[in-house]
Specification:
Blueprint lengths: L2 H6 L4 H42 L1
């Protein structure tokens, strides 16, 4: 088996590489989304603490 045959995947390359791509996108989103949400929550808490300390 050469590299060209591997990439072609026996005629199923579109389905195989699309599923790999979608899987990687989902994994990336599972890493990025909680990090962004954590940052938003921390920013919100800091703002809330500043407002409470002014009162």
């Amino acid at each position: 088996m050469n590299f060209q045959e591997f990439i072609h995947m026996g005629g199923y390359a579109v389905y195989v590489w699309t599923s790999y791509g979608l899987g990687l996108v989902v994994l990336a989103l599972n890493l990025i989304a909680p990090l962004r949400r954590n940052k938003e929550v921390l920013t919100s808490l800091r703002r809330q603490i500043r407002q409470e300390s002014r009162s």
